[in-house]
Write a structure and sequence with these properties.
6 helices; mainly alpha; about 0% strand
Length: about 140
Amino acid sequence: MVDIKATKTTNETSELEKALAGIDGNKGDGGAAVGAPLDFQEAPVPTVDDILSGKDATTAPVAAPAGSLKSIKNSVLSDLKPLVGKVNLPADERFELLMQIFEVTKDTGLIEQAYAAAKDIADDTIKAEALLRVIREIDNIG
């Protein structure tokens, strides 16, 4: 019977010696001494505000075609228009949604609905701000 452990080729021994040589601080095949400090460059870390605002420091912003996002927004708001009366929203949220749709569509029929929603707002301060906003929009129309 032949002892397999004892029959190493010269190639295997030299490869093992090269690998072990790097452990004790000598240069291995990579050219740098094992244990030498690595030179990493740290990437900027985005803040929470950067991420939420879309300013991620690690990636470049992707530009959308100029008119496509505005077109999508207009379509979404137009799709929302018939749903506003069907969805059970708090008065202040219904008011904001109606005003957003109005700002895009300039459908003056929405002003009356926004006024009704503003009157239903429970908090007097928020109600007053909403009513003043309705007045400003009416002034801007006429």
